[in-house]
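Why this split exists: single-chain examples teach little about how molecules sit against one another. For that reason, every record in the complexes split bundles all components of an assembly together and asks for one structure covering all of them. Below is a record exactly as it appears in the raw files.
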Amino acid sequence: MALVPLGFLTLFFAWPVVAIVGLGARAAMLDTLASSDTWQLVGFTLGQAAASTVVAIAAGMPLAFLLARCKLPGRGLVQAIVLVPFVLPAVVVGLAFRGLMPDGGVWSIILANAFFNVAVVARTVGGLWANTDRRAEDAARALGASRLRAFTAVTLPALTPAIGSAAAVVFLFCSTSFGVVLILGGAEYRTLETEIYLRTVQLFDLPGAAALSILQLAAVVAALVIGAVARKRRQAALKLRGRQETARRPVGGEWVVVGIAYGVLVLLLTPIVSLVSQSSVEGFRALSGTGHDNSLEVTGLRAAMNSLSTATDATVLALILGVLSSIALMRLGRSAELVDVAMMLPLGVSAVTVGFGYLITLDALPGDLRTSPLLVPLAQAIVVTPLIIRILLPVLRSIDDRLRQAAGTLGASPLRVWLEVDLPLAGRSLVTAAAFGYVVALGEFGATSFLARPDAPTLPIAIGRLISRPGELNTQMAYAACTLLMVVTIAVAVLIERFRTTVEEF
Amino acid sequence: MLKAVVVAATVLVTASCSLATEQPRPGNAQTVTLVTHDSFAVRKELLDEFQKNSGITVEVRKSGDAGALTNQLVLTKANPIGDIAFGVDSTFASRALNENVFQPYQSPDANKRYQLDDTNRLTAVDIGDVCVNVHTTGLKGVPEPTTFEDLADPKYKDMLVVESPATSSPGLAFLLGTILHFGADGWQDYWTRLKANGVKVVSGWEEAYNQEFSGTGKGTRPLVVSYASSPAATPDTKALLETCYRQIEYAGVLQGAKNPEGARKVLDFLISQQFQAEVPDQMYVYPVREGVALPEAWQKAAPMPTDTEATLPAQEVDRNRENWVNQWRSLVQG
């Protein structure tokens, strides 16, 4: 079962990356590795990623609590708003943060990275939290534990797998964040990602880029292995429950957490509002056209449609790969961690490396995929699949295996067991994962900008193009397109939420 | 069984998206794939007309900026992703030529004035000058600067914003302009003075022009490194024509093109009267063809810089680029 996703990964990720790194593997690589400049880069890259991860988790936990455990009006909207940062093109968010903190330096990079990733924490942790049995906590409280103690002794250990999962994803995203670092770091702060781009695209220093890619890969693998080890020690079967049973109106000190969560929400909304306020009626009207002097080859609305259909293809593909991998990972035993790490790698490798790798490998496949429009959803699926695994796997692993064994003993086939036991219990997470994956695919910029054909740009690509050409109309149109992207995201999130409630009632 | 379902579903999904996006092509017509950078633009009607007259459908494939384009061409030279490439500029031309990416073709319409060498592998298509732009009403009574030297004058303290040559192509052009003007040993001193005069460095043109420059309404700095053509789109601004650096963009038929005959016709088209006349409005650059009139708004706001010598030899740029950028980094950001 693991063969399908692994084969896909080999073909569309490992092979291109190995080929392009191999092309640069010459003695000149050693110069780069020996330079102190390089190690400074590594240090800064990992440092800013770690700091961003800490901030994202600190800000995401109260939101996860709010979403998972609280029965409050407007919850669906909160859930949708949290997702919005994820679809915004990094160029635009970078510009928004620059406007808000003109001389923010490193802090603005960390905050912008965290801004993007709070959703990962809220979603991943919230997904598990909503399904953990509340009675263990209640028992601890009844036995005299304080609210804090009940949280640290009972809830937190139960959530650790999800927190570890989220931290790994956030760390990967932050260590490879490109647009944000480029814009907010000026030319002063550089990371491995921006330097790989510079060496590959501008200087054509392939040995240097290969050396940095290997370092990036090594750092990512190290981070993943540490994460996997931490997760393994904490993995335990939990009793899973439906959210209906575990959510209730907050009481007492819980209101403090809820207050913090709303505070985080306001902070998230600040850059969003500053973006929306820059779009204008003319900008929206212009979306039905192609911009000042035809800056776009298709209309803004057409680009939006492209985004929707590409993201759909990518999500379906990623769901198939993600579900297959998750099931396989659960059964693999010892080698599971290895496969797990392998599936996560695409999040930690530069889009430029993969894109240039495609150029020199994919012509060997039938139909010269290098120039095929198919490549966009394929590349997006590679980014989305690990996220689906990260959301689904903690839940699948938490299902008491005795349920499956019982079903098996009663004569159910493996497929039937999955449909009757796993699917109902993990169904909510599956829908969450699909929604999240869809939104990530909608907002994906790095790989898409490399692969999208000019006559079929997605909305983020169109925004990037509009903002890079002069003309007031283009700028207004770009901000209007951002607003449109946010509206679509919120609509998707709300729709999925509806659907999810129906699934639950059923 | 599950595996079979999944495989079938994968096949279905892949098939459905490819069917949805692949356009049917008539059997007898020929196609030429034009590989270019993100700034390429052409009016659709003009392409349609070309298609009607020549029977050639031009398929445009864009990939990044001029640097990304050149490097992709080099990487794929054994099996090129198109038939003709447009957008390799003077900064990257020698890399493309050294790697033998292009095959010789001399178009009858080629303007020999801008010819790179006598191998005829690259044909000039347009000219883009990078110049300091001034927001005339944003200077608050200070007279307009005219030269590179003026920019380091304390009168203009904290007024200039530039792009980093490490990450931006106009930024690199401006650095090359200062190297050309002050010489290989004099530019370092000039940049030290610019730094002391409060020059602000940002990573890309978008930020410099749309956020820091006062001419577009958002920023506070009245001087910015942009293009000679930018004033055509932004009122109350003009280019300082003595601070320009010239970049020429070339096109060439790719070595190993599947349709070299068609590619040559497309190249002729790129330097034809009709295409050249629309180059300013479409791509914000100047035509290379003699006798092509600029649009009216341009003649007033964005005349073509006249200093045709404002450029460094391609080989010299290719050889020293990394070194210059590194020196610049430690000078301005160290």
